Amino acid sequence: MGYLVWSMKLARSVHSIRTLLTDWLYLRRTSLICSIGLVLIILLAKTGDRALAQGNPTPLSPSEAYKAAMAPFNAAKAQPDDLTDADKIALGIGVAQASRDCLRLSADTNAFASDPKELLALSELCIFGQQYEPARATLVRYLALPQPPDKKLALVLLTRALLGLGEPDGAELQVESLLKEYPYDAQIHFAIDQVLDALEGLEGNSRNPIRAWQLSHLCNAQNIVTLPLIAGGKGLEGKDISASPSVLFADAVRCVAITDALRQGPAQDTFRQLTAIAEQPNWVGTADLEPMQAALQRQTMVGRRAPLAELHGHLLSHGALVPHAVPLMHGTVVLLPFALWAPSFPNVASYLGRLAPQQPIYAITSWGANTGLDDVPSKQMLMALRLWQETLPAHVSILIVPDAELSAFHDDSFPSGVVIRDGVVRSNFVLSSRGAQRMLLRALTDPSVRP
After folding, report:
1. Which residues, in sequence order, are bridge partners of residue 322?
2. How would you classify the pairing of strands 361-365 and 332-337?
3. In this structure, what is the dihedral angle of CA atoms 401, 404, 408, 412, given to the nearest 10 degrees?
4. 378-398: pLDDT as tens digits
5. What is residue 428's three-state secondary structure?
6. Please, which of 2, 224, 411, 433 could form a disulfide with 197 given CB 3.0 to 4.6 Å?
7. What are phi and psi of 48, to 5 degrees?
């Protein structure tokens, strides 16, 4: 795996070594997650060659069927909390060492001030050690060299360093340089994603014309390149990192949600264009079709009546299954669709629970979503769900619903978030970043509903 891919994953995986170790001890993840992993291994061994992905009504070719079957695994590995506890301990040691060495080496750079290779390596070391200010200073020095040999990578790393410093405006300027100086590729696309993650959900976005323009501008920069690519049935291919058509499509739908919420740009025109793309016959029989359709359906749902008047299922209460119904037509309801193969779910649920301590939250799943088999109770899954329940705040309840009710919200990527107020869906999107999670929290208090 290339350094850039790894560093982006690290940036999402670890906010600080103190937070990482605190969460690890608080959630007792050594015993709990290892137990869950063992249960999953046992269960998946019993599933034989049954695919975890939902069936496609059109038979897939072997290559497309393989893509669909690998989708849950790839989605799990792309999440920020896919590391094992042993990985996290080792990572913590490495981060601490990198932090110490970064501070020591950056205190006096005279020995390698004109060596571009060592300057770039020092910036990578500092980012790994989460010492973002020395990383920023080193990268500025590197970019000031007469002919920096890897300027593009330096700009991408500088974007990351500035985001680590909480300076999304500066990071946005680096993205502008990337867009002006280099052909658009997956590296630039995901760098824009990182800046969007930092900007979306910030307080006052809808009232701050500069912030609103930045979000809209970055989305337009993506769409100008990616919409024609998707229309041609293509993604962004690269040596170290790639983006499939369905990933680019989901990012475009995300931008529709952002610009629509901010009342910026032709959101509905873009949405109609995406709808037309998804209806092209070339997608039939491909693994990209279902996630594209699901992304469209989630966004279509926002501002409309909830697809169900009530959720029916079994609440996991003190380890036992208790019949329970959740009315959706009155009051505010927060749903977190999830599956056990989504490792970021416990941290997402804990984060939302801490910031909305008075709001009951229902983490909903189904037997079928966790096994890929028939939607019937599984002792192994129940054991894993009980273990996971121990990691959640008291007001986050696990509700096991029929697969048909889970599917009604078209959440095929986990964890997702749905906010329903008085029977109207206020938001429905994948909680893939802190920005997305903050947007969900904002939907709890924002009185407006986009028609």
Report:
1. 315
2. parallel
3. 90
4. 898 999 999 989 989 999 999
5. strand
6. 433
7. 60, -135
Q: Residues 337-358: what's their mean pLDDT?
A: 93
**Per-residue pLDDT tens digits for 272-283:** 999 999 999 999
What the block records as the tokens of 235 is: 């993604």
Q: What is the pTM of this model?
A: 0.82
Q: For residue 292, which of 103, 4, 143, 71 has the smallest C-alpha distance? A: 71
Give pLDDT, residue 434: 87
> Residue 445: what pLDDT?
78
| Measured distance CA(134)–CA(439) in Å, rounded | 31
**HSE of 276, CA atoms in CB hemisphere, 13 A:** 10
Query: In the numeric block, which tokens belong to residue 443?
Result: 């939907």
Chain centre to alpha carbon of residue 270: 22
pLDDT at 103 over 90: yes
How confident is residue 72, by pLDDT bands cut at 50, 70 and 90? confident
Structure-token match 């989305």, residue found: 219
Angle between helices 151-164 and 132-143 in degrees, nearest 10: 150
Confidence of residue 15 (pLDDT cuts 50, 70, 90): very low
DSSP 374: -
Produce one character per residue of 428-451: b if its CB has 16 or more CB atoms within 10 Å, e if not: bbbbbbbbbbbbbbbbbebeeeee
- Residues 73-102: tens digit of each pLDDT: 777 777 766 677 788 888 889 999 999 999
Can you list the pairs that 269-277 forms with residues at least 24 positions away whose Cβ atoms lie under 8 Å?
Answer: 270/223, 270/227, 271/296, 271/299, 273/227, 274/227, 274/249, 277/227, 277/230, 277/231, 277/249
Does the pLDDT at position 24 exceed 60? no
Q: Is 328 exposed, middle or buried (0-12, 13-18, 19+ CB in 10 A)?
A: buried
Amino acid identity at 263: R
Residue 247 CA to residue 236 CA, distance in Å, equals: 10
State percent of the chain over pLDDT 90.
61
Q: How far, in Å, CA of 188 to CA of 200, rounded?
A: 18
Cβ-based neighbour number of residue 372 at 10 Å: 19
> H helices of 129-185, where?
132-143, 151-164, 168-181
